[in-house]
Input
Amino acid sequence: MSVDRRAIESLLSFWALSGAETLYGETPVDRTAQAPVRPAAPRPAATATATVAPVRPMALMTPVMAASVPAQPNFVPVARAAAAEAGDLAALKEAIAAFEGCPLKAGARQAVFSRGPAAAPLMIIGEAPGADEDAQGAPFVGRAGQLLDRMLAAAGLSERAFITNTVFWRPPGNRTPTAAEQAVCAPFLERAIELVKPRALLLVGGASAKAMLKTTEGILALRGRWVDWRSSDGAMTIPALPTLHPAFLLRQPVAKRKSWEDMLVLAERLERAE
Ligand code: URA
Output
């Protein structure tokens, strides 16, 4: 059978654009079930091979599945050491790209670190890169990012924000990053904060606010209230403002008024701090 490579590529890209990222068989497989115990058949040692049940990569799991996976080797100290060695943002970007300890890396095209000036007075921390960010290698470049940019421009904050995320690889299907994925990326994020030295943090969306402020409170309760963010060693304290995620605003335009209030409060505080 001749295989038309272009037809296959076109079909795959159509599926990817439609959001189909995982291939399932027609018959469900219960991978948690024990393999039936068979009487051991004697095999010649030279040809014996171990049969390993296929394991779904952790990055491709839903958050509920991922949360139930036994702890991975702890890469947090490795991340901390790599982050501490980075003397500037360029080195930090390289250290993130080289880091193998975040399970999301397996399902992403590339690491997505930051955009915006290195000495920005404001650091914006989103949740995680999405499909556009994964393709372009920069945070907040899709529809949500364009809305964020328009809001920043209207508040006079364009070019004054260093923009990044709680994790540096796209979670598959744009699921929310797990606490473990955020924890292993946190040393890099803290190092970025240390290098940029922003006067304020804008925590965009519930997954960002919860991870940064170590709270379980929802974003609707948190938004619009200044809270002090503290680094893990207690050396840095920076005022942080949680706000609604622009992707939420695209779905719920009536909530834009609340976000606009947050932007004005933020702009006013930055102005006062100058
Ligand atoms: N949403 C986020 O939280 N971050 C991005 O970079 C893009 C979309």
